[in-house]
Amino acid sequence: MKVQVVGSGCAKCKLLEQHAREAVATLGLDVQVEKVTDMTAIAAMGVMSTPALAVDGMVKSAGRVLSTDEIARYLA
Amino acid sequence: MWQRLVDWFVFDAFKLLRGSAFASALDFFIYDTVKILALLVVIIFLIALVRSFFPPERTKRVLEKVPELLGTILAALLGIVTPFCSCSAVPLFIGFIEAGIPLGVTLSFLVSSPMVNEVALVMLWGLFGWKIALLYLASGIVVAIASGFVMGRLKLERWVEEYVYAIHGARGSIEVLSWKARAEYAWGTVGEIVGRVWPYVLAGIAIGGFMHGYAPADLLARYAGPHLWYAVPLAVLIGVPLYSNAAGVIPIVNVLMEKGMALGTALSFMMAVTALSLPEAVILRKVLKPKLLALYFGVVAIGIMLTGYLFNAVIR
Fold this sequence. Notes:
Chain A contains three helices and four strands; from the N terminus they run βαβαββα. By secondary structure, chain A is α+β, with helices and mostly antiparallel strands. The termini of chain A are close together. The longest helix of chain B has 36 residues. Chain B is an all-alpha fold. At the A-B interface, helix 2 and strand 4 of A face helix 3, helix 5 and helix 10 of B.
């Protein structure tokens, strides 16, 4: 499973990353949380508002900070 | 009613002299601070709730289907209800362009988003009444449409950074949100905006209060009254490089007008401050070549100036 936190580094992006790491840890998954910060790469994923979360290449949510629980639900 | 409570607090509880400059300033400060902060909380929450229904992906899908002229108008209107963060201005611009949305339409959206600012609308309504708030809204939309239309006609695609046209983005999806998630998002937005903006609000009101109590009533009429032709361009030129969120600049605008600045001049100052800024220029430079960036700023600045002149001429 691939988990990506999409965003160029503002406070909300960092918060989403933190929640994503917590969700991964809580579920005990052996998954790396990858950060996508390059504007071109972000656009290529079809993301137009950050922060966004993608699981296995599919964008699940864009434009808001998901809670750890919400992310866990997408990962389970 | 709130005014009476504040008056009691300042003049009776603390026994400050009515008519003294300090008491007058303090009265103004307390009254406006609480009123504006309360308004901000309520209105930002409601507007964020509305915006949760208009993610950029939905706006993009609407705009890619309509002819250019209609698109330019719709883009300006959608710019108001689509949540916009300058951090995602670049991916949004790229997303619109590679979906085939014309440059003029995209630029119309880009102008309207920061210009028609919900915080500004609320504060204008609260401090000046609904007519002026509506005027601000209408002028923002018109400037956005006109800017987008003019730049669209000029066929400036060659002044967009080439890599933008080379990107082929994946088809986005729109997440379905529960009401709980929407409410949490809206509440988060309130915390984020008010948390960021409150020092500016306090500072803006403090400065306004200072002028309310201390500066003579007609101080600005001589320098910025409606009869001075250069007041509007000057206000816009000063406003462009300045960066403030709407909350901070409006109390100042409030007092500027109280002291004699013409309405059109004050509003164009406000629009220049909120719509155009150095940080925004830095961000847009990633997708717009310098000539287009300069043109963008120039066209919008001129649009704001014309609006200022129009209001000065029409509103007495």
